[in-house]
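Re: [help] complex structure
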Amino acid sequence: MHRRFEDRVAVVTGAGSGIGAATARRLSAEGASVVVVDLAGDAARHVAAALPGPALAVQADVSREEDTEAYLASAVDRFGRVDLHHLNAGVIGTFDRLPDIAIEDFDRVVAVNLRGVFLGVRGAFRRYAAQGSGGAIVITASIASLRGSHDLLPYESSKHGVLGVMRGAAMYGGPQGVRVNAVAPGLVPTGLFAGSGGVSGAGDDLARRGATVPQRRTGTPEEVAAAVTYLLSDDASYVNGEVLSVDGGSAWV
Ligand code: NAD
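Output below.
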């Protein structure tokens, strides 16, 4: 495989499963040293242990400022620097009609998905400044960043919000050699849907929804990881402030 990330150090949040784990594997296969960050410490250790290159697992809650500082400090302790960030950790919350949404659910979803991304972006910029380097950041947004649905308002609010963080950071980062972009996945069967009370993690419900996608199927974590690693790589050296949909055409139907 082409090794676009030789001598680069990458942090991937939410890398204990799904899209983040696939990005960690792709970055590692292409030469990066990878810091696998997840709230689920065992999952992070499991993914890190299976990577082909240098790896470090860190248990952290991305919604907490001190955890964000701690995973960056661990990365620097181990690898000396950080070049690339995939800010990907997220939760879906519960599928509720608008009048039934609990404030606690709204706050938790926004804390992980939006505040967590803000903390990750701010931490990345502080790290680049300390290193005197540029870098690249990719945020996992969603098809839910681009339109609404009838039962996922906290998730959609948080995912619309991350595009604001991405665009502001891209403007700020441009002159400093820091590119900030987002991917907007469509439906990808992962652990995200477990326990959400809506789309079930596997089986009929996802297959039925997949059949409505123009490409007539759901996506894979690897297909999203391919877009993330493109945006993190020098192949995207003049791409900044962009949202790349990876959704089989869903965004426009
Ligand atoms: P996933 O549940 O398989 O992976 C998410 C990971 O994030 C899990 O390992 C989880 O432990 C971790 N996590 C959750 N809260 C955390 C926290 N506070 N701190 C650190 N880690 C935390 O799901 P996925 O589908 O791979 O989701 C990855 C990202 O992709 C999410 O941001 C999600 O919103 C986004 N996304 C997913 C889909 C999809 O259909 N699967 C579509 C669009 C966007």
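The two ends are 35 Å apart (CA to CA).
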